[in-house]
Amino acid sequence: MQDNIVVKKSMINKNTFQKILALGALIILTAAFSIASPNFASKNNIVSILLATAVNGVLAIGVTFVIITGGIDLSIGTSMTFASVMIGVAVTFLGLPVWVGVMVGLAAGAMVGFVSGVCVSKLKLPPFIATLGMMMITKGLSLIISGTKPIYFLDAPVFSKISTGELLGIPFAVYIMFGVALIAHIILNKTILGRYTFAIGSNEEATRLSGINVDKWKIAIYILNGVFVGLAGVLMASRLNSAHPALGQGYELDAIAAVVIGGTSMSGGKGTIAGTLIGAFIMSVLINGLRMLSVPQEWQTVVTGIIVIVAVFSDIVRRKKASRV
């Protein structure tokens, strides 16, 4: 019993240390870009960073659950676009109320998550392959349904307020992101779903042998991720006041990078929502800062890739050290 308590305390201390390390990196990045570019610390730019983080943050929060199980979801970017297109169909094409459109977006994301979950758990496809296929499917469906053209929400001006409306100078999307983070934290740490998420990621076979229906809970986790993806689609479409069918691919890289930077292990069994949120802010600050310094888009992608490799390598080193203890 005492050994278990010591192990749990050790894990808590390591998670806390990683969050502090990530927060320190965020502060250093912010200070460095503020010195390099006087406009970086301006109010307008800070608001721009917060708004950009809202979409990536919600995506990252959702995929955190999947990665903790030891899985991956490469479809979250194009699924977000698919959800936004379905909102456009509901609100612009069918003339339904905005709140119905929002529910359609969430349902579309949940449906994609359900299909991915079934492919992974029932068909036993590797998560990489299953979600890669879903990435292609949702990308194609978005282009087919929209006719390859953006869908604008000109007759629903209130829709844009979901993201761009402000309270105390802060966009609503930012409040939504922090609210979602709080809910996700509670789910991950205070519910059966969260407990089984960690259990599956730590040792799936042992979890199965203990009598837990792993397949059912995996599907539930992918559906939950899909709901977050649908919400990200709502925020993105609201921010642009349109649904762009060709937009979305590439967002999964930033979201997964945020999760890894935040300390979630790609091997599964470990992760925190707070760490993911810090990672999302690091990604937004980094991309915004590089743009402010006029660094080409191509080099921004290179830097992001390097950061992901370093973060994953660091996780591997930490796990090797932990296994020796």
Report on the architecture of this protein.
The protein has 325 residues and is an all-alpha fold. It has one domain (38-316): ABC transporter involved in vitamin B12 uptake, BtuC (Orthogonal Bundle), CATH 1.10.3470. The protein is built from 13 helices and four strands. The strands form two sheets. A two-stranded antiparallel ribbon has the order 1-4. A two-stranded antiparallel ribbon has the order 2-3. Strand 2 (166-167) and strand 3 (170-171) form a beta hairpin.
Question: Can you give me a brief rundown of this structure?
Answer:
The protein is an all-alpha fold and about 325 residues long. It has 13 helices and four strands.
Keywords summarizing the entry:
325 residues, mainly alpha, ABC transporter involved in vitamin B12 uptake, BtuC, two-stranded antiparallel ribbon, two-stranded antiparallel sheet, 78% helix, 2% strand, globular
